[in-house]
Design brief:
Pfam families: CAF1. With about 725 residues, the protein is of the alpha+beta class. About 45% of the residues lie in helices and about 15% in strands. α3 runs parallel beside α12 and α8 crosses α10.
Length: about 725
Amino acid sequence: MRKHMRMLMRRPVSQTLTLIERSFCSSTTTSFGIKNVTKSNFDAALLDLRQHIRAADFVAIDLEMTGITSAPWREAFELDRFDIRYLKLKDSANKFAVVQLGVCPFRWDPNVSAFLAHPHNFYVFPRQELSISGTSCEFMCQTASLEFLAKYQFDFNACINEGISYMSRGQEEEARRLFTSLYDDVFLDSHPSSKDIKDKPISRVADVLFTERMKSKISDWKNGLLQVRNRDHECQGSRKESFQQFENIFYLMRPAVKLHGFTSRQLRLIQLVTKNHFDDLAYIRVSGEGTSLQQLLVYTDSTTDKDLLMKEVKGILLKETELKIKNAVGLRHVIDLLSSEKKLVVGHNCFLDIAHLYSKFIAPLPATGEDYISSIAKHFPYIIDTKLLLNNNNVFQVIKQKRSTSLAKAFAFLCPDIVSGVKTSGSAYKPCIKVEVQVDDTRSSNWNSGAKHEAGYDAFMTGCVFAQACSHLGIKFESQVPSPSLALEEKLQGCINTLYLSWINGEIIDLTTGKRIVESSGSSDRKYHHSKIFFSNIVLLWGFPSKLKAAEIKECICKVFGQSSVASIYHLDETAVFVKFSKAELVTDFLHLKATLEKNNDPISVLHPLSKILDGGCTCAANYEVYKEICESPISEMLFADQAATIGIKWKTKLFVPKQKESHRETLGPEDGQFTGSTSPSEKEIKKLVSVLDGLSSGRTSNRLADSLHLAQAQIGR
């Protein structure tokens, strides 16, 4: 021990204190809880977190939500176009709540050649802190998500009772506007209601009697007040006298009376009496207990004193407003800190997480994906996705060959020393970067919180995976003192600001340029890899008999259009499918034939191969553009067929040609079966449609349609 102390004394004071702290706060394997932050300790935690983020090399984040998809058909599908994926992302971020936010700053400590992590686990609840802001927040919950949270001992009571509320920047601006409007009523001269009463003569007998009685009572109160002041200020201090609806008080060192039990109309009449008959009295509204406003009549010595009073009242109200709004902003202070410090933000498969941060704390998500992508960089200029980092670098081929790149598995493979708390050998193909953890005054080099699937711990895991990945890429933290910005590190430039749009088909978005690329087939551990999708080849079909399966639908269509006509059938849910045709013209032919069969409803139509799909009379079909219309709706029915009906779709067949100069829609009515269309620049399309429909009535049809009708006719003759 003496030898150890002598060695400490030879070191600089700062290093000595660090080593002493570590000698008392570390152990071989230390287990202490993560820093949980609720509304009761939020202010203190924010002060500490501000210092940690400013000193950090990067900040890892993670979220826990109440759900992911509001309906099965809103899940991510391989046949989703970019605009559809964004609409589904927007729907998820708008409908579900964030219940935990994990924030973990990482700073390289050259004294111990290790990263120092500060994991924070914020409980979040969208409580209505300001009554002025309107109705309370509503959000959806998925039972599977709640069951998952409960399985890992999520504290729902802490979330609801102690969770930190928040306001977005847009909500803050609206709250300030509403407060300004409300506090304008403090000053009588700017009160619109009192002006209205003044301009109109008081005609009601009850109002006349009330105003005369108030004039008398206020005169008596003021005269009594002056008599008391002439008798050596007997009313000095905090003396209160209750005379029914009048209570004597002092306000800002001035005699005043507090008004109780009056109706809003009576209070406006009292304002009018005060304004017209008592120049030395000021009628004001000030904050009372809770969220209520107190109505006061305050005595002033002069016009100058009255102006001074109004100025003081305004100053008090502005300070109260700032405090209320600051408290209501709540958790957004953390997001503002991340944004203003322009730190490298690290997440794992974090496209949805970023969308939640934007919608909850910044502003409503924009209408289009392009606008959203262009706005992210303004608030989070440097983002890295560890899942994409692992999947798109040959250095990590061992992980991709042996394991998936889920967060838990990547953490277990890349960080075995951190997982076990014991130095290991052979389990990883390169040595681990050391990571120490500090929670309040406790610090450990071998930390195990025992808190799986908490947002704070998942953020810690994400940061550890990123630190190890940087080491495997050859980034030397030891030689970077003081450490430069990791966001500018050359070896990371290929992954900075690139996120997965869809993990299913490996589509990646570059947040800097807005360009989208598809991941190469050998760059990820996804099970399937798909060729380019031509959305003009897709028909959306819904409302067919529930017993029909994908193979049966394909068989029916192929009997009419040929065995190679349908590339695949993809279920959205039990009521809807995508039919992917081999050629775009087959989409038009199919929709026209369907409309014709439903229009005729004759024996040929009944025995046609497509009649199995059309059975029941509720089958609807359209091309891919209608799918976007349905996804744009904020409504989310569980079944796709119900969704279409709820948003008002009454037709059975529609062909929608994407807008170029003008949009072109063709619709067949549900009752009369007549085709209607709006003007389109494509006269060729109109002539083709008219030709098909005319041909059906006159016996001139295309070969494919005619063949299908002949097949049905042959079945009649059997």
